[in-house]
Amino acid sequence: MKIVIAGAGEVGSHLAKMLSQSSNEIVVIDSDGDRLERLEANADVMTVEGNPTSVSTLKEAGTETADLFIAVNPSGHQEVNIVSALVAKHLGAKKVSARVNAEEYMSAENKVMFKQMGLDFILYPEMSAADEIVDLLKHTATIDSMDFARGKLQISVFRLEEDSPILEMKLIELAALVQNDNLQMRVIAVSRGSETIIPRPDFRFTYHDLVYIITTREGYEPLLKIMGKNNIEVNKVMIIGGGQIGRMTAMQLNRKIDTVKLIDRDRDKCIEIAEKLDDEIQVVCGDGRNIEFLLDEGLKTYDAFIAATESDEANVLACVVAKKFGIEKTVAQVENIEYISLAEEMGVDAIINKKLITASRIFKYTLSGRARTVRYMSGTSAEALEYTVAKDSAITKGPLKDIDFPRGAVVGGVIRGNHSFIAVGDTRIEPYDRVAVFAMPESVNDVDAMFR
Questions:
Q1: What Å distances lie between residue 29 and 26, 36, 92, 240, 338, CA to CA?
Q2: d(CA 134, CA 114)
Q3: Segments of the chain with pLDDT less than 70
Q4: CA distance linking residue 424 with residue 69, whole number of Å
Q5: Domain boundary among 123, 153, 171
Q6: What tens digit of pLDDT does each residue of 227-264 get?
């Protein structure tokens, strides 16, 4: 697939690196030659220096024959993104997308308008990150989760701590426990350090493993008991950082819970935020890095703490402090991908990275039309995918154990009509099933081929 990316900022550069690993032809446009030079040194991409709204620049990048055009210049350049995407569509690009930074563009009415103009989909990374944070607070017992078909199947991610009931247990022992209780659940992967493992029966769980388990809706509560976890009800949330992600998270949570407090150290920004947000949201000016200040603001009385400042380091440290004072659920915005594993090791419950979230949403458009959902899961480079099975596709040709499903991937569960169940070796996939798959990056294209 030929993909042209306009914008070599943080989001664009990450997309280019990720998509180039899947045998795609990537061309990146940017007016900053230094940024392009840095990108070329770290990714197998071609670059074009120039204005992304220029017809000649777009033609030089080969936009006329692009399968996908993505305009992701930094959030302050949404007009540039929209114009370049529309010009790319006119030149012949099959699908085009633009990054925006205005919430009004995401309304159903305006999405239809942009679709009619030629934009196939709109990206708003900050809103996607806020949506993700709100979803994370629904499942406080896990560090990440993903629902398929509105929760008929769920992937949950657990970090094994010193008191975990399955610590030092073998997978075959856990499987026997699950089978004895007739529970619908299955371990699909384990992340250990920088390695993601699809475990075999003799695999033994160890301290700080991240364990990815798929369950049916009915199996979720029994799973929490096995893992020694409890969901808490989140009614009070403290947020530090009054940027776009912090503000949008506060607005969404205000419709769902009793108390939302938003803290920022910039007095002028606080005044602006207080004028724009609902009156019920408490806006406080102060330094969220100051422990005494946070304690004075009642930190210990909150159920969840979200750090969404512009500083990764401040976000991680603030969450560590909040955890020390008994906050059940902490979420840190971390934009430097290299810091993510460190933040997890330091005890932060969940990490939000808008580049990875956006990359997952775009990655869907590089696959066949059978892919309904693609999502990056915390703690691993793997993706969770949901497919609708095509008639006569390779996945339907026999039981899963006999069809040579790609290594580095596993079918976790199946939704058939109103019925959902966990997949095993004898499971036969049928046309029009919805199938949940967990796949390493190098296996995704082979998995995609199984469903065409």
A1: 10, 8, 17, 35, 25
A2: 27
A3: 75-76
A4: 39
A5: 123
A6: 999 888 999 999 999 999 999 999 999 999 999 999 99
C-alpha distance across the termini of the chain, in Å: 16
What is the separation of C-alpha 15 from the centre of its chain, rounded to a whole number of angstroms? 13
* d(C-alpha 93, C-alpha 4), whole Å: 9
Query: Could you tell me the residue range of the domain that residue 408 belongs to?
Result: 363-451
159 within a domain of the structure (yes/no):
yes
Q: How many angstroms separate the CA atoms of 40 and 18, rounded? A: 13
Is residue 130 domain-resident?
no
The residue written with tokens 């204005």 in the block is 51
Nearest alpha-carbon partner for 55 in 15, 25, 84, 35? 84
Domain-terminating residue out of 169, 192, 227: 227
Tally of domains in the chain: 4
The domain spanning residue 378 has which CATH number? 3.30.70.1450
Neighbours of 29 (CB within 10 A): 29
Residue 128 lies in a domain: no
Based on its alpha-carbon atoms, the radius of gyration of the chain, rounded to whole angstroms, reads 23
Q: 311-348: per-residue pLDDT in tens?
A: 999 999 999 999 999 999 999 999 998 888 889 888 89
CB 296, CB 284: distance < 8 Å: no
Is the pTM higher than 0.85? yes
CA-nearest of 14, 104, 8 to 49 is 8
CATH label of the domain that carries residue 295 = 3.40.50.720
Amino acid at residue number 227: M
Same domain, 197 and 172: yes
